[in-house]
Amino acid sequence: MGMRVEEGATPSRVDGFEVGWRDDQGEHRLPLADAVSVRFEAGRPVRSFPSYRRQRHFPGLYWSSTTGGHVGFESWLERDHAMLLDFTPQVTGLLSQPLWLFWEDERGKRVSHAPDYFARFEDGRGLVVDCRPLDRIDARSAAKFAAAQTACEAVGWGYRVVGEVDQARMANVRWLAGYRHPRHGADEGLVTRLLALFSVPSPVVAQAALLGDPIAVLPVVFHLLWLGRLTADLSRPLSDATLVSRSEAL
Prior knowledge:
This protein is an alpha+beta fold. It has helices at residues 76-87, 139-154, 167-177, 188-197, 204-208, 214-227, and strands spanning 18-23, 26-31, 60-64, 69-73, 91-96, 100-104, 110-113, 117-121, 126-131, 158-162, 202-203, 230-232, 243-246. This is TnsA endonuclease N-terminal domain-containing protein.
């Protein structure tokens, strides 16, 4: 989702933006146009999350199967969107609080914004993501989001402002995330047999039981669903009768 900003609130050219980021060598800052080739997804967060008594948000760390490391989040909403990016097979890199954007507003005041996530796709595309319940975006936030969109589009990155996710889909993704670790796909022979078994859409539990105890087989099925090697309709709650099939991409 992109958002509009009042005229004059954001630079009209990419050279009006600067970007700051961190990596193992330290802190860096360049005009945005000169930093397009930077692998922001491989850097370090530019800011940390505060933690204090009675805070309203819930910061934490999510273990990403994409990166093999932890991705920070500052709320359950951010956690859900980190999980969704991790669940996207085409995403190859992911970092929270990946960079600072700097620009001047129409009054000449310096403005800064740290987006929530930077994701890299297997074709090289970059995606910048801000998470915010859509009914809680005030004018100040909307202006920052619009400036971020302008900056991202100027250098060929995607940009999204994302809010609440469909509850059924998110519940399914959270369930499958419990089986995201590679250990669930370690039995290559069983993986091969499952991919063959689900060559046509079939009820998940009954079909998995053909290869052994469902308690042992289903975690591998869920892992393959997480990887996108098997597919199912996630718009409805997963159940014993959910039809699962091999992905057409295989």
